[in-house]
Specification:
With 800 residues, this protein is of the alpha+beta class. The protein is 48% helix and 10% strand. The protein is built from 21 helices and 18 strands.
Amino acid sequence: MGEEKAAAVGAVPAVGAKDAGGDKKAHGGHEVATAAFEKMSKRQQLALLAAAGLKAGPNVSLAYAIDKFRRDKIREVFLYVFFLALFTISALLQRDVTDAHYYTQTVKDVILGEDFPGVTWRKTFHDVTVDSDFWDYMTTVIPDYLYEEEWYNGDKFTQSEMNYILHVNRLVQAPRLRQLRVVESDCIVPQRLRKSLNRCYPQFSSRLEDKDPIAGWPPGAILEYKTDEQLETKEYTNGLLPYGGGGFAIDIPLYFNKTEVLEFFTYLKSQRWTDLKTRAVFFDFALYNPVNGLFLSVRLLFEFLPYGQVRPSSQFRAIRMGLINFDDFVALLLDVCVYAMVLFYIVMDIRKLLAMGRSYWGQFWHWFNWINYGVFIITLVYKIQFWLPSLAYVNGSGDLDIQRASLDFEALGWTYYMVVNWNAFNNIFVWLKAFSFLKYANKGVANLAYTISNAGIDCALFLLIFAIVIFAYAQAFHISFGTDIAEYKTLLDSIFGLFKTLLGSFDFEAIKQVNSILGPLLFVTFEVVCYFVLLNMFLAILNKAYSDVLDKGVDDPMAVEFRNTIEGYFKSFRKKLIFWRNKEVARFKSDGPADGAGATDMAQDPRRHQLDGEAMALMLQTVKDLSHTLRALNDKVENISKAQALTGAANKLNGAGSFRNSRVNNSMQQDMLDTAGGPHAMEPQATQAHSMAVTPPPPVPGSAADSIRASSKLPSYTPPTVPNGANGSGSRGAMHGAGVTTAGKPVLPPGWQEATDDAGEVYYFNARTGVTQWEPPSIIVPPPPQRPGPNEEGDVTPRM
């Protein structure tokens, strides 16, 4: 399941003695391109062999290792796609999130959103702030909904309709009321207050827990302290402080009616069941909905804080327990298949570890794999801890549930939620693992994967700097504003508050109101540092990494081989589809109608119309291609005809003209050479026989031309003549040259340019040979062809 980065660099000639020539054919008949792997080191060769699951030996060739690696990688990619789909389906089937949401929200609205009766303002569970509010809630809202007795029209419930919430959610065991207390202790107070303050009630801790008996139920009974083993209750950590599983507990039997429950809470209130020693009161009950098959654990916690406040909180956990319906068995089967594949991947990585040795741990994806395996193992441990008690509960006898709470649904729900949370966290690892296969998709996606890989170290350093900045400002906001603004009351809340600030959720006016100088200063500097410095730094890191990838053209040779192989498979598959379609077309063409009715049926066949349209489009495209070809041939023949027409004029001017030389500005000549650069400058120079005019007659001594020649700095030049009959016998095989003009301007051969010197004189310069002359150069034309010219009708189309 790992990514063979070292092996992906490539490979060299065979490590062993086995002939690599026999292994150059890859799967599917494609030849393995070993030329890209010829510069590998010995260490890279061994890494490639290890990635292919081979060990270096006399009978192992590099070509075979490359071929095996490619075939194994193809199987690994498709196998992981299957595993990804299997894991996703299994994770979604294990929990019906939508039903659990609506089920939980419905019960929440009833238990937590119900108004206190007898008050003229809206007061709910969340408005409980003092001990009197606690007793009002327990004596009004709880009896009305947990022990409802009549329908909306006043009809009384039958015995089978009792112990339901909203008529469909069954109470599965007796609700439990549990209290935790602390002992009275000495207070450390200033000297001035010692006479009036000498006793205190500290916050809760297991060391200061009070275990003295208190008043219980029925009236006159004494309630003893019980440990967590006796109550079968575990520690609870979702409050302000962790609370143990022991305490003073009373189970309310399910056969109680509403009146008896009201008497129960009224009696405890009269006995001051809660006092200054009380630190927490738990009220637990559990429901079951037979339609969606979900259990619902409900815990209401009232924390009696040392400074006099009662802080309410709640915990609702929807749980799927046991194997009840068909979906439960399917989810269990898929989960078993997932863990079977995880075990297979673990075995494969262990084999790879034994083959590669220490170099195995030099690859990032191998570390990533083992972290993923660790998460799977942790999830499996929690699943075992959940399934054992849940199966025992759903398959056991419920005779005692009517009198006592036999199962701690909150603790079991916590384990179930740990399974869900670790499974959700593992979804990230499983899907991120797909990034290791991105470079095998195509070159563009591979560049993105290489960018992330190359920027990994820089991004890690950036995250370290970012964490330092966030922690520094979080501590500053917590110290400065935590007392007045709830968003910064703890250091952790302050960190989360700053992240919300980065997303645009903040209360600047509240910050400014607390401290009009320090508040805006901290806020503005935080925004500037995070947005204008850190954010741009992060973008610069990614931009540089991506530019480096594009500039260096980095690509994995093994990834290239993989993409070529997959492309070959798709081409082969496409050819088969085209071949099948051609066979269908041929069958339609060959099956002609036997009579008029058959012709009508064939004409009405929609597939036949579709094929006829495709054939017509193909024929039109062929005609267009043929037309373009004929037009190009006509242009070539026309050029040849024009060249033949110039032959006669060239012969007449073959001996005319005189050759003069003069001084030309050397700097201008160099500019012409620079201007003439480009692809022609790199070509071999043309021979003088094809670039110069026919030799003119030498000038008369003492003439003006001779004086100009004497004072010119240009070298004397006499181009060679083309021997007669060089291309055959007679004048027909000779090369003809002459100065040709068009519209009063000379026609220049290739490489020649017209220029003007300082005196305004026009001269001609050959950019290829560096030769200059005053007279227009001659055009060298080939001899006329032996075949006849264009026909009389002017048709220049050659015979096909």
